[in-house]
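Provenance

Sequences were taken from public entries as deposited. Structures were produced by running a predictor on each sequence independently, with no templates supplied. The record for Solute carrier organic anion transporter family member from Pteropus vampyrus is shown for reference.
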Amino acid sequence: MGPRIGPMGEEAQLSDKDTKATMGIEDTPGGKVRPDSQNLRPSVFHSIKFFLLCHSLLQLVQLMISGYLKSSISTVEKRFGLSSQTSGLLVAFNEVGNTALIVFVSYFGSRVHRPRLIGCGAILVALGALLMSLPHFISEPYHYDRTSPVDTPQDFKASLCLPTTSVLASALSNSSCSSYTEAQHLALVGIMFTAQTLLGVGGVPIQPFGISYIDDFAHDSNSPLYLGILFAVTMMGPGMAYGLGGFILRLYVDIDRMPEGGISLTSKDPRWVGAWWLGFLISAGAMALAATPYFFFPRKMPKEKNELHFRRRVLAIISKKKDSPSEQSPREFPEKKDGLARVAPDLTVIQFIKVFPRVLLRTLRHPIFLLVVLSQVCMSSMAAGMATFLPKFLERQFSITASYANMLIGCFSAPSAIAGIILGGVLVKRLHLCPMRCSALCLLGMLFCLLLSLPLFFMGCPTHQIAGIIHQPGTRRGLELFPGCMEPCSCPSDDFNPVCDPSTHVEYLTPCHAGCTNRVVQEALDKSQVFYTNCSCVAGGGPVQAGSCDSACSHLVLPFMFLVCLGVVMACVTHTPSFMLILRGVKKEDKTLAVGIQFMLLRVLAWMPSPVIHGSAIDTTCVHWAQTCGRRAVCRYYDHDLLRNRFVGLQFFFKTGSLACFALVLAILRQQDKEEGTKVTCSGLQQQLLASGPEKKPEESTV
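Predicted structure for Solute carrier organic anion transporter family member:
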């Protein structure tokens, strides 16, 4: 619900404009009236239903753009050599511009041309998406083998155990690591941070102005239905983002500039980088198309006069069961309008800035509001961390491809969130839950969510045994069996071309680290398999297979996702009742600003720091970092057990915090209910004694 700001005489002026808009007449700048050219028929842009359709599509694309970066975060890390902490900060920058401007939306309200401002914001979002894809076009092609200047079928020679490898590696390392290269890397990362800020700034007016515009000009009975449709369509955006990522990341990053000799990678190779930039181009085009109609909507349109037909039928059925419900609804809406009218009077900017801190402090002093917001901060922190790094976690923990991880999340997690929100709304509606029962529902939802996360600590794959890096107890120590086997090889430290010894399930960073001197390609009908032979560090001399070792527990990813989705449903059940606690827990004149304060706190305390916190926790589990020009770049290998315990443990911590806040809310509401019951009983007994005292003395004496 957006604030309605303006003088009291605005409604009288609005009726004249509504009449002109309905008759197809507009005012010219000179004050004269001219008829519309379309035979006095109302335009489609004067229909609130058409605005609802346009705005649903616009918010769908907006959430798809913001969610697409999360779906391709591990790919961006590999392409530009970023740590998880830096990529988490990149995701958080979307909220920086949004948070800085969102508070003033409550001030502007209907003073501006809301549809045009929404269109301008959408154009900024489209430009931000285009800017996000720019680093791909201004950077050099991706070299998955750093020891080779170009990716050709002969690049394997640089990874073999040859005496000339050290000379070649040092020469290439000195030529590639220059001040220009480092400056170019910083410029590319800076462009992405700027694009994320632009995406946040452009998204500021879209949702608040769209919701208030629908609420202002829709029929009072239809407004909740329209907003429900809007939110339902919008919630499909993140799922579509992960689905888009799952499809596009199957394509090679340089699909527009493939090398002449082709590439020798598959999507299962840990060095594979998908075409992450293509999704931003597609989303930018969709956003530009969705923004076009907003420049043709009027500033004010005639208020919808008719109630939807099927809604009338539903009310007619309900009226048979209840006593005169139609008399209650007209009384509720004027009170609602009066309350909204008192939210934000006709203030200047200076007056608004002076009033806002007082309203903020008054709202934060309310214990129910503060505790519910803190619980939502914990849930939003959990959601932000999961949405950002769950694809990467699934990739590393279960050794699956980035596209498959995104498809799993898009097909299961996003629909689970929608189902949970709908279920929570239905329970509140059907059971007519009071605030105390809403808090009890929230408490039960978070309790089940917490219990469902306990098995996740034990569902995962053990860490691969990496020669010279990770050793599993009870296994042979790889390189220690053949001391000095790598000395004649002089393997480059920054090369990464993993091979696997299938007999011992030991993985080596490169064929050179396994002491291999020869390469064999076995052609098959559908694909070719690469092996390396004459390996001095492998028992029997090999052969070893190109690529990482296969995981023995990749099948656990489906049970893991099943429990995650059930937890998402339970957590999202609390969405609607927690909002009801906020709306019923503050003064009527503070409701709109309270909701604005709530979203501001969620951004500042959850959506901004949570990706950075999760990224930092993931970085602490890394056991082998890639080095680029002497600086730490992307992580090559993680300790799987430590990664699972810290990622799931961080989620468990936020769930516990939310559960504790809802428990305190329930305790406070029960205490308030007892106090109110005592007051009512005492005052009622006193009034009964005063009223019956002079007349019923004999009865009192007998009692």
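The mean pLDDT is 78.
The first helix runs from residue 10 to 23.
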